[in-house]
Amino acid sequence: RVMKCKKDAKYGIVVAGGHGPGISLDHLYWPNGVIVDHLHQIFVADSGNHRIMRWNEGDTEGSIVIGGNGKGTESNQLNTPSDLSFDVEGNLYVADKNNHRIQKYERCFE
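Above: the chain's sequence. Below: its structure in token form.
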């Protein structure tokens, strides 16, 4: 699960996942990298499901923005993504751990 904790808060709130491991859109399986963009969208490297998920604030389900086509080496597949980052132009970079590569995706998730 991914939790959001406000400064000085005693407890956080679940903003993504939190229902145990699984493949459905409200589940994550080995979440690793997390980043929030300028629109407050939460992006998660869902390593065990070989995909990148996005949650908008208040969503109960995420959407698959990259991968989700099974583990593999094709450009539309990932193999255990472990981290992600945006550049100043909004392009998304994904560390595709077991493919030993960094994938760049042009900004198209707005």
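Residues 32 and 103 are 16 Å apart (CA to CA).
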